[in-house]
Amino acid sequence: MIRRDPAAFRRLHQPGGGTILVLPNAWDAMSARLIEAAGAAAIATTSAAVSWSLGRPDGEGLTRDEMIGAVRRIADTVAIPVSADIEGGYGKGSPEDVAETVTAVIAAGAVGINLEDAPGSDGKLLIEPSRQAERIAAARAAAKAAGVDLFVNARVDVYLRGVGAEAGRFDETVRRAVAYVAAGADGIFVPGVADAPTIRRLAAAVGAPLNVMAGPGAPSTAELRELGVARVSVGPMIALAAMARIRLAAARLLADGTYDEMTGGIPYPEADGLFSGTS
Going from the N-terminus, what domains does the chain have, and what CATH number goes with each? Predict the structure, then answer.
């Protein structure tokens, strides 16, 4: 199946303004199947929404096994490639922990991962670049041992975490990106940046396909493509929108006994039909 073919996922990353890979983020089988039915070429998971769906806070509130279980359910439900958000690799975040997680996530059906460089140790916002490079190298080695050409998307959280003086964040992001690519990363993910000039400069400087996180107020996917972005994801934004609708529908039902916020839903037969043949 295509979801088990890492080459199919790798081919979707084409930097330089030609095409852009748009990855809506899923957190369970239902959201994944709906995203696939909407026409997505691939799916990325969102660790935040996976965490919330299991009653955990974001930020490695999940255990490795919980995350792997979510990835497996998603990968077993869809026929398109799945990339897994593995946060900092779980466990203590050592290279050995990252390797163990990568081995498990490949067995669960994923063909790509996101590995972030936050948080650091001893109160630091980010991991030292050399240590993150070791973790990326461990992920690459684990994938090679499994015989899978895993797409390793290295997340750089300089902008998202507001690290250092604003004037120095671009150079620090590029410094980290270059080190991560040299260690074996295939792509660079820079969440927290939304202004077009900075995105264009990053796309030209990081030395690998650039992934940004978008949402309301960010450039459109067409605009991001023209800026040189190869891949765009939306993190927990779809999940947050769904949560807002659930809260509003429940509040209206409980407050005045009306059902207006439940109109416009997917018809039951169509919803049930999304899962025919997936068991």
Answer: 2-235 (3.20.20.60)
